[in-house]
Amino acid sequence: SAPQGACRPPGTAADLTLLVGVTETDALRWFDDLALRPVVDRPLAVLTKVADSTALAHAARETGIALVAVHHQTRWELLLSTMRGVLDQSRSPASDDGLFGADTDLYELAQTVASLTKGMVSIEDERSHVLAYSASDDSADELRTLSILGREGPADYLRRLHERGVFDRLRRTDDVIDVPADAELGIRRRLAVGIRRISGAATTLGTIWVQEGARPLSVDADAVLRGASAVAARLITRIANAPTNEALQIQRLLGARGGGVDIPSLAAALSIPTTGTAAVVGFAACGEFDITGLAPSIRLHASAFRRDSLVTVIGERIYVLFSGAASGTAIPVWTADAVSRIETRTGLCLRAAVAAPIADLDGVAAARFEVDRVLDATTGDVRVTTLAESRTSVLLGEIVDIISNHEQLRDPRIAALDRYDATHDGAMRESLETYLACFGDVRAAAERLHIHPNTVRYRIRRVEQILELDLSDPDARLLVEIQLRM
């Protein structure tokens, strides 16, 4: 069938159409139908495996549509995946490598390396799927052709590479490996270098292969490949980290990409209803570790609960949007179950905040802000909470933040108390905080501090002298408690 763009405005066609499993006869019939439609209802280009048909080429010209030939051995799912990857990825930041231009992407990198090495280049991921490649000529061997088409190379040749330890060396070292030609199998000489993550653990991201063609590879091909490996590592990492179009749309809906959001259009693009209640759940770490890698797990849990759920990562947090969400306790119960299951499986401590119910999608951005307020003010003592349940902590935390940001609202007497402790190796601040937390109960404070009550009394009297205030005054106690939280 020839799929059309479901998310485009009415009266327009998809820019690119793939004729998957469509015969020449059916394709001609489809082009005849297109000829009767307005130009705006026609695609700009059509990809097909029967493009060598003279009749089809004529029909495409008559309708003003570009006909793109797809090799008969090409796997459609690979082609579609490659196209989606190119369309979805955000523009990567400029490379800082002088060899390669500021707008370098993987295909441009492959072509640049081919030009510098005088070979034919392919860039593969860690699963040996081709991510990008340079132009080929008549000297391209069967292995290169099959790789680009998404097919596995000759089994005998791959076995010999394994036996020679080529793949192991690519995974473990940064060396450029010279793979001799195999005349028996018709495989030409190659150079290969692993693509490894630059920072952190030396994770293998893929491989760059350069096939020698009719002319010898350049004498500095090794140096070019080493530089290209570093650039490719940055590009692949950026592509992997770049949000997809769907993620960007979800983030816009959640208010993370600025104002001026066309909610009906976003809802249509994301295939979610614009009416009915919604809910937003935010997940954060209990400590200082990164949980963004848990997004796929949370997405699976959310999809099992509601098929139309949407998940995205913003900063260090993971957000789930449920449109047409059920009322009552269903969302909090699911959230608690997800936190428990993920913690059991990973050993990582998660906490979550729920904003529900939301009247409609217009309130989703405000709901995410509410979720962030709760996550900013809580620590994970309660794993799943809401603004209503945590309002005291949230408001107090926000009050303290406001005061902290205004130097004139800071009481210099607290700094004097800290200086006293530093000078005398004292514990006046700790004693004061414990005394106030125990509502002035000396014995309770002494028990917490594991000291004699008289010691607590002495320390509090000394604190009053240092601070020059009377802690029996409720206003003084309130001020000190707020200042101590800063």
List the defining traits of the structure above:
single chain; 486 residues; alpha+beta; Beta-Lactamase; Alpha-Beta Plaits; 4 domains; five-stranded antiparallel β-sheet; five-stranded mixed β-sheet; 19 helices; 45% helix; elongated
What does this protein look like?
Helix content is 45%, strand content 15%. The strands form three sheets. Strands 5-4-8-7-6 form a five-stranded antiparallel sheet, sandwiched between helices. It has a five-stranded mixed sheet with strand order 10-11-9-12-13, with helices on both faces. It is elongated. It has 486 residues and is α+β, with helices and mostly antiparallel strands. It has four domains: 1-70; 88-241, GAF domain (Beta-Lactamase); 245-386, Alpha-Beta Plaits (2-Layer Sandwich), CATH 3.30.70.1230; 410-484, Orthogonal Bundle (Arc Repressor Mutant, subunit A). A hairpin with a 2-residue loop joins strand 10 (310-314) and strand 11.
Topology of this protein?
Blueprint: E1 16-18, H1 24-35, E2 45-48, H2 54-63, E3 66-69, H3 76-88, H4 106-117, E4 119-125, E5 130-133, H5 142-148, H6 155-163, H7 166-172, E6 176-179, E7 190-196, E8 204-212, H8 221-241, H9 245-253, H10 263-270, E9 278-285, H11 295-305, E10 310-314, E11 317-323, H12 330-346, E12 350-358, H13 364-377, E13 384-386, H14 391-404, H15 412-424, H16 428-437, H17 442-449, H18 453-467, H19 474-484
Parallel strand pairs: 1-2, 2-3, 12-13
Antiparallel strand pairs: 4-5, 4-8, 6-7, 7-8, 9-11, 9-12, 10-11
